[in-house]
Design brief:
Rossmann fold; 6-stranded parallel β-sheet; DNA-binding transcription factor activity; 7-stranded mixed β-sheet; about 350 residues; alpha/beta; single chain; 434 Repressor (Amino-terminal Domain)
């Protein structure tokens, strides 16, 4: 495809002159002979202005069939809005960038190969088996995995910087004088397509980083590290278990805000004062976190940015990028009343 530079070389003028002539700049002083020669050469070389190229690109993208694959059911999305927030970020930013999601596939439903065969590209939210996905889509260079614990070299991915996020939480709690720190989280799995049973269990990133950091500080107490199923009810139940110990933790990091809300209910029922008797830190910063009693200190996750990044990566692949890209999105610790200390925030 001809460029402005190609036209300038053949016409014997500068690229700036070519650009201004082709854009009909009224302030440009150039002879009619030169102007005519530039237009003639541009036509001869098949030059198309960037505006026309952009219009063509948008039309081509609009014809692409893009799928969104999620493991969670609509009911699970309502229970934990984390994944639905990422989905909304993908859908909204996709429309802005001219690439619309045409199909949503639920990975836990009985497997139907047909929807995959009709797709030009796929964004996967959550930990779904790489091989299953590639087998159905047929090519790995048109898949972006979002919030997936394991990276596949040939596929793009978007993940959170869990290590720095957990470090910001533990560093803050230690700075407040806490030495007996508990953890409530959920199990993580690599899901198989069409298999509702759960899949293959893997180590959950937040727990791994928490245990590593507390161990380095000489503060790890395994009996204070509990895992459930990521629901509000599970957060409530696991907090009851911590409260039943002879020696309770003085602080607890909870790996999702819905679980933290369940834990707060358990604390209220047992008459445990937050944060004076137990400090609480959540993860996600869902909207309701600022309105519970007390307002929840939590790690803010930029789900919209995760969605935007996933769409941008897939768009680049559709336009020919060959090398895989693994993007990491940062987080921020939002300090509210549930853990005490100064009301401030820190980047993670």
């Amino acid at each position: 495809m001809a460029t402005i530079k190609d036209i300038a070389i053949k016409a014997g003028v500068s690229t700036a002159t070519v650009s201004r002539v082709l854009n009909n700049d009224p302030a440009l002083s150039v002879s009619e002979e030169t102007r005519g020669r530039i237009f003639s050469i541009a036509e001869e070389m098949g030059y198309k202005p960037s505006r026309l190229r952009r219009q063509k690109r948008v039309k081509e993208l609009a014809r692409q069939e893009i799928g969104l694959l999620m493991w969670s059911s609509p009911e699970q999305e309502r229970e934990d809005p984390y994944f639905s927030a990422i989905r909304r970020g993908i859908e909204f930013n996709g429309e802005e960038l001219g690439i619309a999601v045409s199909k949503i596939i639920r990975g836990s439903a009985p497997l139907d190969p047909l929807p995959f065969q009709q797709l030009d590209g796929l964004i996967v939210i959550g930990s779904i088996d790489h091989d299953d996905v590639i087998r159905q889509l047929g090519r790995e260079d048109r898949v972006v995995f979002v919030n997936h614990s394991i990276q596949r070299p040939g596929c793009d991915s978007v993940n959170l910087h869990f290590g720095e996020a957990v470090e910001s939480v533990i560093r803050h709690l230690i700075s407040l004088g806490h030495r007996r720190i508990g953890y409530i989280g959920g199990h993580d799995w690599i899901h198989k397509l069409g298999d509702e049973a759960g899949g293959r269990p893997i180590a959950e990133a937040r727990r791994l980083y928490l245990e590593r950091m507390l161990s380095e500080q000489g503060l790890l107490q395994p009996e204070l590290v509990l895992e459930g199923d990521w629901t509000t009810t599970s957060g409530y139940r696991l907090m009851k278990q911590l409260l039943a110990l002879d020696e309770r933790p003085t602080a607890c990091f909870i790996a999702s805000d819905p679980m933290a809300i369940g834990a707060l209910k358990a604390l209220h029922e047992e008459g445990v004062q937050v944060p004076s008797e137990m400090a609480i830190v959540g993860f996600d910063d869902i909207e309701v976190s600022a309105f519970v009693n007390p307002p929840l200190t939590t790690v803010k996750v930029y789900t919209d940015q995760m969605g935007r990044t996933a769409v941008q990566l897939l768009l680049e692949r559709l336009e020919g990028r060959e090398a895989a890209v693994h993007a990491t999105v940062g987080t921020r610790l939002i300090i509210r009343e549930s853990c005490g200390g100064d009301r401030r925030s820190g980047e993670a």
